[in-house]
Amino acid sequence: MKRYSMCALVICVALSYPFASYAGDALPRIVVLATGGTIAGVGATATTTVGYAAAKIGVEGLVSAVPELSGIARVSGEQVMQVASENMTPGDWLALAKKVNRLLARDDVDGIVITHGTDTLEETAYFLNLTVRNSKSVVITGSMRPSTAISADGPMNLYNAVLLAGSAGAQGKGVLVALNDQISAAREVTKTNTTALDTFKTPGMGFLGYITGGQAHFYRATTKRHTSQSEFDIMKLEALPEVHIVYGYAGANSFMLDAAVGKGAAGMVNAGTGDGSMSDVMKAAYREARQKGVIVVRSSRTGSGFVARNGEAKDDEYDFVVAGNLNPQKARILLMLALTKTKDTKEIQRIFMEY
Ligand code: SIN
């Protein structure tokens, strides 16, 4: 009886937020694309929350574990890959972005939910935020506990992600991340804790809203360009330029940077100390790399805050680019995409300020 009441409530909520194209009582048509991760993970026991095997349960298993989905959406599913997300590659991002673009171009698809490992979820989310050129909803979710654990968080996260993807409020907001009852922007969110359920945060700004009581409630939106306003067209791309990250630390020398440049990196992101600072040794090495044609972006390893031009380095003189408040892993993605269009550092700096 309790379950029936909850479903009835959810159906009412879905109908009060219809897409413009819906006929009367039709529920949104949401495609779930499964990629693996802990949400599809299996542990040896119900208390196994570390040391489990990620990426084991298929999309049918994920969806059928949440029968309540049928009350809020017409859900179809596809297994696009089955990996722990640290194995996700730029080639996988391209393939996924092409698939999402093609699906959203169809009249019979209203939104997409992607299930993903949490370790690199923010990277796939930001890549899609820049390359899905459609204002229909795209929501990424995952879980911190495997499907076999006591209080597994995957089923509720999937339910909330489908609810969010089917809500009018999610359209036009860019790619959204839905975990732990919170809605976050792909550009801003980052994983902050190794194992906690409350791991996804937006340092300094907070999340966009909550999913609670069967509804998505938004309080703010990102101001940066995304999705339908994006200038990046990846549909004909087969590969992305090589861009790597070098971590800053006390006493760092040019060992890692030289290796990356020697291997042919087109761009480098400095995950700098503090406000994107680099040691004198590293500064010299980055200037040498720039003289060889490598694009250099200064970001910060601190986890929050803005790296400003001509602060910790003479960016105008050295011809470096600054990442603003993008973290190093997202600065890498934006630089990869920027390099598909230009090698002009002024133009790349414009891109970093707009996205
Ligand atoms: C992964 O990222 O695939 C494993 C970890 C997780 O999903 O939480």
What does this structure look like?
The chain is of the alpha/beta class and 355 residues long. 30% of the residues lie in helices and 19% in strands. Helix 7 links the parallel strand 12 and strand 13.
Find the CATH superfamily of the largest domain. Answer: L-asparaginase, N-terminal domain
Q: Describe the strand arrangement of the main beta sheet, using strand numbers.
A: 2-1-3-4-5-6-9-10
- Sequence of secondary-structure elements: HEHEHEHEHEEEEEEEHEHEHEHH
Helix content: 25-40%
Q: Under CATH, the topology of the largest domain is which?
A: Rossmann fold
CATH class bucket of the largest domain: Alpha Beta
> Class by helix and strand content?
alpha/beta
Strand content: 15-25%
Distance between the termini: 48 Å
Task: Give the assembly state of these chains.
Answer: single chain
Largest sheet: 8 strands, mixed
Summarize the topology.
Elements: H1 2-16, E1 29-36, H2 59-64, E2 74-83, H3 90-104, E3 111-115, H4 121-131, E4 137-141, H5 154-165, E5 176-179, E6 182-185, E7 190-191, E8 200-201, E9 209-212, E10 215-218, E11 243-247, H6 255-262, E12 267-272, H7 280-291, E13 295-300, H8 315-318, E14 321-322, H9 328-339, H10 345-354
Parallel strand pairs: 1-2, 1-3, 3-4, 4-5, 11-12, 12-13, 13-14
Antiparallel strand pairs: 5-6, 6-9, 7-8, 9-10
Helix pairs in contact: 3-4, 4-9
This protein binds succinic acid (SIN).
